[in-house]
Design a protein that fits this description.
Blueprint: H1 2-13, E1 23-29, E2 43-48, E3 54-55, E4 60-63, E5 70-72, E6 78-79, E7 84-88, E8 101-104, E9 110-113, E10 125-129, E11 137-141, H2 155-174
Antiparallel strand pairs: 1-2, 1-10, 2-7, 3-6, 4-5, 4-8, 8-9, 10-11
Length: about 180
């Protein structure tokens, strides 16, 4: 069973993205549970769908609604191929309603822009692309810094599905 779980996880991690390669805004939390002003509570996840690492030093992530905030990524920061980077701020910086986030590279060229989204719920759900790096957006349980799998509302759900599948396969072999 452990072998099956390992191969299942490996398959998910190596799934190829059908969107164009490059760095995109992949997930964002507008209204986290608890205090929106807590450091790091609101976040933007960047994803590199390419096959090579990307240096994102000096790139900027900007909110657009209310009082716009721009965060500049520190020197020496990169995202590995098919990897993630989380952008956070020391306080609240993303509005709960009608927010759009823009990603610009170090010379100011727009790399990506999210659709305008809202999150009236004070919970762990985020806006996220599925599959990672593609154009489809879903509102589902946060998968911060991991692959987006909306079908499974929590890691425990995924483990239950794997366990039940294993039991069914073993029963079928006995017959």
């Amino acid at each position: 069973m452990l072998l099956l779980l390992s191969s299942f996880s490996f398959t998910l991690r190596t799934r190829k993205v059908t969107g164009s390669p490059g760095v995109v805004i992949n997930e964002f939390e507008l209204n986290p549970p608890g205090d929106d002003y807590a450091p790091g509570a609101e976040f933007v996840e960047l994803y590199n769908s390419g096959s090579a690492p990307v240096d994102i030093s000096g790139w900027k992530v900007s909110s657009t609604h209310g009082i716009p905030v721009t965060i500049t990524i520190s020197p020496g920061i990169g995202i590995p191929a098919e990897g993630f980077y989380i952008v956070v701020h020391t306080t609240q910086w993303l509005d709960n309603e009608n927010e759009q986030i823009i990603l610009r590279n170090a010379v100011g060229i727009e790399v990506d822009r999210t659709p305008v989204k809202s999150d009236p719920f004070n919970d762990v759900r985020t806006w996220q692309r599925y599959p990672d790096g593609t154009s489809a957006w879903y509102f589902d349980t946060s998968t911060r810094a991991t692959i987006n799998v909306p079908e499974f509302s929590a890691p425990m759900s995924m483990m239950v599905v794997v366990l039940l599948s294993t039991i069914l396969l073993l029963r079928k072999r006995r017959k």
